[in-house]
Amino acid sequence: MPSTATATQTTIEKDFYRIGEVSRLTALKPFVLRYWETEFPMLEPVKSPSGHRLYRQEDVEMVLRIKRLLYDEGFTIAGARRHLREQNDDGESSAAAGAGGSSNSNAAEGAAQLLSRKMLLDLRDTLRAFLTLLERK
User: Fold this and answer.
1) Between 43 and 98, where is the model more confident?
2) What pTM, to 2 d.p., does this model score?
3) What pLDDT is stored for residue 49 in this prediction?
4) What is the CA angle 32-81-123, rounded to 5?
5) What gap in Å lies between CA 63 and CA 22, rounded to an integer?
């Protein structure tokens, strides 16, 4: 009987991550994760009976998506929230549309917008570096 309990506990540990584990996996401080929970309604870890946050795999993926938007792509919190909400709405409407051509055009349009945004952010960083060099002289 004890081996069954141990096997069940091992399965639960693979399905759920505590905030410290998520913090290590994502290289974010726990207070950042708690703050993001208040700012992003789509990030909702479940609570254990003792009140500890338990992140599912989808929650960890959402944290990584939020981190990429905020840190790599330069979104504000409000902009990242809006972007994720729009992505979610697009995903639901694409699923409802079925196998129509609109889902492919939405995906292509989204990829083009992401590429344009990335190029603009790279250009901004290059111009800032150039301005820094000019200010030194």
Assistant:
1) 43
2) 0.59
3) 92
4) 90
5) 9
- Average pLDDT in the chain: 79
Instruction: Look at residues 24, 22, 27 and name the one whose alpha carbon lies nearest to residue 54.
Output: 22
Retrieve residue 79's tokens.
């902009």
**Span 11-60, pLDDT tens digits:** 444 689 999 999 999 999 999 999 999 999 999 999 999 999 999 999 99
Asked if CATH classification 3.40.50.970 holds for the domain at 2-97, the reply, yes or no, is: no
DSSP line for the chain: -HHHHHHHHHHHHHH-EEHHHHHHHHT--HHHHHHHHHH-TT---EE-TTS-EEE-HHHHHHHHHHHIIIIIS---HHHHHHHHHHHHHHHHHHHHH-S-THHHHHHHHHHHHHHHHHHHHHHHHHHHHHHHHHHH-
Structure-token pair, residue 42: 């789509």
